[in-house]
Design goal:
3 helices, alpha/beta, Nucleotidyltransferase, domain 5
Length: about 150
């Protein structure tokens, strides 16, 4: 190396490969996020709710949830219960909920295939348990295609 002389280095050649490590790290993080959040987004109980044009529910205080699936099984929350246990647990839950908030509402989700008599029977149990506010949960109707006949 001589004094005062600058040596010029050859510029580096462009890389012809993509560094895959950061891409794989990002994909694994996204995979973990989806694995953790997917069960939280989907309800465990699959019901085909009837469609109805209804106003949005007003903000109720406490809410109890009862569901009936297409096979006629009744669920308190997400737990399937036999009829006798359902009635006793419903009465206990109603007493606790009404003691905390008198405006407690029961939200009834019934599958489209459930006979009306079964739904009416369940409404009678709920009223017998001491809950007067009952909301029937439905889905918003899908937007009708142009030219489609209404049901």
């Amino acid at each position: 190396m001589a004094f005062g002389r600058l040596t010029r280095q050859q510029p580096g050649r462009p890389m012809s490969e993509i560094n895959m490590t950061p891409l794989i790290d990002v994909m694994l993080v996204l995979l973990v996020i989806f694995i953790v959040t997917a069960p939280l987004l989907a309800s465990r109980l699959k019901l085909e709710l009837p469609a109805a044009d209804a106003a949005a529910a007003a903000g109720a205080g406490a809410v109890l949830s009862v569901s009936i699936d297409a096979q006629g099984r009744v669920f308190l929350g997400d737990e399937a219960l036999p009829e006798a246990e359902l009635r006793s647990r419903l009465e206990a839950a109603a007493r606790q909920a009404v003691a905390r908030d008198p405006a407690t509402e029961l939200q009834l989700r019934a599958d489209r295939a459930v006979p009306y008599g079964r739904v009416a029977e369940l409404i009678g149990w709920v009223q017998g348990a001491g809950l007067a506010r009952i909301g029937l949960v439905t889905e918003a109707p899908a937007a009708a295609a142009p030219g489609a006949a209404p049901r």
